[in-house]
C-alpha cells in the first residue's frame, strides 16, 4: 500500500521523516526522488534526527556519500545525481550491505545498482512551502514499517 501526504512547511516534513527515522533498523534503504528543492535533503535531516545523529546533515552533492556515525545507527547519505549513466561498478553495495541506514537522493540514476527492497519517497513541489510526499514501501518489512507509521 502506498501513502500520500501533504506537508505545508519544512518542519512538518522533518517531523514526518523523524518519525520514520526512529523506527529504522540496520540495513534499511530509503530512495528519495524529486526535483531540486523538492525537499530530499530536508527529509534526510529529519531521518537523522530520528536516528539521534547529533551532527548537522549537509547535502552530499559534491561528495556522493556522507557518513554519519554518531547516532543510534550509521547513516549513509548519498546524492547520486552526478552518477547518471555511470558504467563502472560504483561500489555502493558496501553501503547497502552495511550496518547503517542508506538514503539515496536521485536514486533512479543508479537503478541497476539498487537493492530490491526499499522505501521510495517521491517529493513534489506544490507551492512555496507545500510539498506532497508519495511513500511506496517495497518488501514486507517496509510495508509493516509504513503501516505502523502512517496507518490508522
Ligand atoms: N513543506 C516543505 N518540505 C520540505 N522543504 C520545504 C518545504 N517548504 C519549503 N521547503 C524548502 O525547500 C527547500 C528544499 O531543499 P532541499 O531539501 O535541499 O531539496 P532537495 O534535496 O530535494 O534538492 C529548503 O530550502 C526548504 O526549506
Ligand atoms: Mg538534496
From TrEMBL:
Keywords: ATP-binding, Cytoplasm, Magnesium, Metal-binding, Nucleotide-binding, tRNA processing. Transmembrane segments: none annotated. The keyword tRNA processing applies. It is found in: Cytoplasm. Its main location: cytoplasm. The keyword Cytoplasm applies. It comes from the Bacteria. Pfam families: TsaE (PF02367). InterPro entries: P-loop_NTPase, T6A_TsaE. Belongs to the TsaE family. This is tRNA threonylcarbamoyladenosine biosynthesis protein TsaE. It comes from Listeria newyorkensis. The lineage of its organism: Bacteria, Bacillati, Bacillota, Bacilli, Bacillales.
Amino acid at each position: 500500500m502506498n501513502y500520500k501526504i501533504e506537508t505545508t512547511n519544512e518542519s512538518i516534513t522533518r517531523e514526518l521523516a523523524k518519525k520514520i527515522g526512529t523506527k529504522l533498523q540496520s540495513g534499511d534503504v530509503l530512495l528519495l526522488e524529486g526535483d531540486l528543492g523538492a525537499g530530499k535533503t530536508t527529509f534526510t535531516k529529519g531521518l537523522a534526527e530520528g536516528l539521534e545523529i547529533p551532527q548537522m546533515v549537509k547535502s552530499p552533492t559534491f561528495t556522493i556519500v556522507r557518513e554519519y556515525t554518531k547516532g543510534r545507527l550509521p547513516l549513509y547519505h548519498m546524492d547520486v545525481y552526478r552518477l547518471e549513466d555511470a558504467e563502472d561498478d560504483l561500489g555502493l553495495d558496501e553501503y547497502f550491505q552495511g550496518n547503517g541506514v542508506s538514503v539515496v537522493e536521485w536514486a533512479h540514476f543508479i537503478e541497476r545498482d539498487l537493492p530490491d527492497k526499499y522505501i521510495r519517497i517521491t517529493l513534489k513541489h506544490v507551492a512555496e512551502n507545500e510539498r506532497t510526499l508519495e511513500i511506496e514501501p517495497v518488501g514486507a518489512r517496509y510495508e509493516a514499517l509504513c503501516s505502523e507509521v502512517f496507518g490508522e
